[in-house]
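Hi V.,

Quick status before I head out on leave. The structure for the redesign project is tokenized and pasted below; the design run finished overnight.
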């Protein structure tokens, strides 16, 4: 389908880079604009008081950039998860008055159809002979006026990184966030994750329930109303994770990191029969080192962001 207005590029990101973005999406996701669909943007990352998590996202969005020199600007960046039962009908990304500033769209697939999920094919409405089969590292790019749709996800979780570009500097995404990051003035929220969407009957969807199911952990009952001192426990046997968290999103980050790096639920790292490679304290040390590295990188990058007024 490669032409002047749309195209496909393979191997834009490595497997590990894609897996890191999935980790960020799981950690910070909130309810999206269609049923059974969750999103993570810079707004959620900052609201959850983890600005260091911006760095992998900012690095990845650069890889989606079109070959138009410096005429394109980042309008909005979002990590998405499409749960079973999710889909979207034919539409264009600039089909509303408040979206007219979107001129180009890129969608980067973070996992692969047939391996990680079924369903969820991408279709252009016009002049397309076959659907696009999502594949980890595959980028689909097109002008935002192209109508397209996504078939229903049947099983698994379909992860994407979508970046919208604009030619109008008034809508530059970075303007909305870079100042708050540099001034350390973002406000952490404890309620943004706990949003439920009720479409009636079997379409009821709770992001909180989904996180519990994916991570295998939940808030300890006695700490459910103490948002400055968080303890979590296993959903299988009630074992308490031996770590006190300053907020729920740090707890989610550790649980997601364990899935990413060790391919095991955090609660399972406490079990004696899992093996030393999945020892909880090894997982915790690895997560703390990962965070320390990001925080060190963030400290070195902040002066550049502040000077130029944008992320790069």
């Amino acid at each position: 389908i490669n032409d002047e207005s749309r195209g496909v590029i393979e191997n834009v990101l490595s497997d590990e880079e894609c897996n890191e973005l999935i980790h960020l999406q799981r950690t910070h996701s909130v309810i999206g604009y269609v049923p059974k669909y969750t999103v993570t943007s810079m707004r959620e990352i900052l609201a959850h008081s983890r600005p260091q998590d911006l760095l992998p996202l900012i690095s990845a969005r650069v890889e989606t950039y079109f070959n138009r020199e410096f005429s394109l600007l980042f309008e909005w960046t979002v990590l998405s998860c499409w749960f079973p039962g999710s889909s979207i009908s034919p539409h264009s990304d600039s089909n509303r008055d408040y979206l007219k500033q979107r001129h180009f769209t890129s969608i980067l697939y973070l996992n692969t159809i047939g391996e990680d999920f079924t369903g969820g094919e991408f279709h252009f409405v016009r002049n397309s002979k076959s659907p696009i089969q999502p594949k980890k590292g595959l980028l689909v790019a097109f002008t935002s006026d192209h109508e397209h749709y996504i078939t229903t996800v049947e099983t698994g979780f379909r992860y994407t990184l979508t970046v919208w570009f604009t030619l109008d500097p008034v809508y530059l995404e970075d303007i909305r966030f870079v100042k708050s990051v540099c001034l350390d003035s973002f406000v952490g929220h404890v309620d943004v994750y706990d949003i439920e969407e009720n479409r009636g009957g079997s379409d009821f969807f709770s992001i909180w329930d989904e996180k519990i199911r994916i991570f295998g952990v939940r808030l300890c009952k006695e700490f459910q109303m103490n948002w400055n001192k968080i303890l979590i426990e296993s959903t299988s046997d009630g074992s308490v994770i031996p770590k006190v968290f300053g907020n729920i999103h740090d707890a989610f980050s550790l649980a997601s990191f364990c899935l990413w790096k060790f391919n095991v639920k955090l609660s399972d790292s406490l079990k004696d029969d899992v093996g030393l490679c999945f020892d909880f304290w090894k997982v915790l040390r690895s997560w703390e080192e990962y965070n320390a590295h990001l925080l060190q990188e963030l400290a070195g990058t902040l002066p550049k962001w502040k000077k130029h007024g944008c992320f790069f």
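Above is the designed sequence. Residues 187-202 have pLDDT under 50 and may be disordered.

G. will cover questions while I'm gone.

Best,
W.
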